[in-house]
Amino acid sequence: MSKVVSGWLIVCLFSLISFASGVDAASTKVKTSVHYFLGQQYVQISGENKKVVSDINRILKADAQLLAWANMEYKKSGEHTSFRSKANTKYNKNGKLSIVNTIYLNSEGGQTISASTFNFDLKTGERLELDDVIKTESQKLNLIEAVTSQLVKRESKGDPIFTDHIEFYLTQSNHSFYYYDQGIVIRFNPGEVGPRSEGFVDAKVDYTTINKKRNGPPSPAPTIPGYTYVTKSHIENEFTGFDYGNIYELANGQTWKQVGYVFYYNPSWPEVIIYQKGSKYYLKAEYIDELVEVELVGTD
């Protein structure tokens, strides 16, 4: 009798383990299908976890509804402008889901396109942003260096790439990305790091590169090819942007004078980084893409 009971318990235990494994496997991948709301495409999913499915579907449909509403408002105003979205499942494995919505804006001036990315944890239904993948300063610097390296190579081969803008876009919140098997793909919209005619510019970065250990403490500033980091601080005097002859007084006691002919109006008190290239020095201000040539005119 004891052998029968023991055998029954083993069967039950095996069944429970198999069931648990099946539930876990089901949560790592879902079925996807394309739907339409007033002409706008969006993805809907189906799977075992009803709450997760409901939460993700609500977010994806709401985006299509918002585009449809904007489309109707443009039509009401009499403007010759319309939106059209195309939804595409880019990744659906290992507990992660990536949806890329391509938005086509048609107007009298022609057509422009942009991408909106939706990444989800299929176990929780949580929407994932780039900050959920790139969590530390070292990871951020690794990402910037990897993307910059890829695009600099493309530029050297003759591709029309704007390498000066890479850091600016990657440090903005909620930048577009999607998953692939070994890591993430950073997607730049037309016009961000290349001319609009170049279309989308993608850069793949694997997890090994993102998580690699850096020698010594993390660099206090992102690497810019050809430039050497000098110092990082904040502007303390009134700052209205860039102009020839401007004086920039930093919190670290240094005073720099702009000697480059660059004008940019942006009143703020930004964080700034000083770089050196050859015998010349350049100032990079937060939220402004362009570097300006400066010279050190004083220290406390």
UniProtKB/TrEMBL annotation:
Taxonomic superkingdom: Bacteria
A Pfam match: DUF3298
Residues in coiled coil: none
Secretion signal span: 1-20
Limits of the DUF3298 domain: 132-207
Keyword Phosphoprotein: no
Record keyword Transmembrane helix present: no
InterPro entries: DUF3298 (IPR021729), PdaC/RsiV-like_sf (IPR037126)
Keyword annotations from UniProtKB, A to Z: Signal
Protein's name in the database: DUF3298 domain-containing protein
Organism annotation: Paenibacillus lactis 154
